[in-house]
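Recall the central idea of this unit: under ordinary conditions, the amino acid sequence of a chain determines the structure it adopts. In this exercise we apply that idea directly, starting from the sequence alone.
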Amino acid sequence: MQGTLGAGGFRRRLIVAVVLASQLAPLGWVADERPARASEGITPNILLILIDDGRDEMLRYLPNVRRLLVGQGVRFTNGYVVNPVCCPSRASILTGDYSHTTGVYTNHSSEHGGFAAFRDGSTIATWLQDAGYRTGLWGKYFNGYGREAYVPPGWDRWFATFGRGAYYDYRAVVDGDELSFGHGPADYGTTVLRRDAITFIRETPSTQPVFLYFAPHAPHKPAIPQPRDRDAFASERPWRPPSFNERDVS
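Accordingly, the structure predicted from this sequence is:
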């Protein structure tokens, strides 16, 4: 697929990856059928969407994702990492390293887990920034982040949200400043992140490639939907995996 991103006259090949944070199996990867070679002088834009605690069954409720990403790309049904836990997996996504190199083994912020343990000096953000990309992160970073208005190296735009699930009544560190959000429709976490990410794209010069790391807290529990979607699946039966209320638990 020859994907393009056209906001503000911005036209360039686009690579998109959609990843489940709980399983770390990419739902869809969109790229050119014939990958661009460095000699062609084409630098792709990269959009990484990280879904927090989603399951693969949710794809049937996401027709736009199926049509725009999975249907025009590749679905890696057996794509997993060695440590399928939130923070360790996020550290591996950002670095390509195992936990014994990233320092992150658990979600709990400590010497071996969460934000406190992550070594952020060399990540995909620093590498791409050094290569001329304009980089940005929106959404969740690591458990334990937010005790200080810290911006890691490598990010030109930093919009990290935290607190109370980051649907409503949450906080964010935005380029070093701490902001608070309330409970109105305009404060809904994913909407706030989407709005700012689109602005970032439109403000980027057409000659500069971008790397967007988009990691909303949805659909992680408490899984609060946007008001307009609150009754969208009211008639659907609750999800019941084979292990639900099974008779034989021996």
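The two ends are 49 Å apart (CA to CA).
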